[in-house]
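Recall that a protein's primary structure is simply its ordered list of amino acids. Everything else, from secondary elements to tertiary packing, is in principle encoded there. The following example makes that idea concrete.
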Amino acid sequence: MGKYDVDCFQCDECGFVQAERPFWLEDAYKRPINILDAGYIARNIFYIKRLSMLFSFLFGKEVENGSARFFDYAGGYDVFVRMMRDVGFDYYWDGKYTQNLFASGFEADLNKKFTAVTIFELYQRLNKKIKSKTWDDHMFCKSMLGAE
């Protein structure tokens, strides 16, 4: 956007990079998909192919018997959740800033347990550590967490 100056901080212990309190989110999510983002659908397809294989490997028995439940944190329009559901995964979403267009009706009940959570292109904007009893010990994150 180029509208705000934001300070970032890096943890000396783990290298995690975090922005200051994200005061710009409401403004940023007025139009969540940038018109110049030509790779939005392609990125979703990329992650669906890989994560469906990985989740089938890691949680195959639970997926087959219907006990595996997945959660996409701050899913945006949630093309990802819709497509993961289309290929057979019991996927849900939660999001505060974006109207969910593709997975409406599959809102996460955060009082229930999830097998794993996915977080895409968001993690560095969080202003606190995620602490939840909502999912087991499986978090799959796609964000650059540090400069290497």
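DSSP finds three helices and six strands in the chain. The first helix runs from residue 25 to 28.
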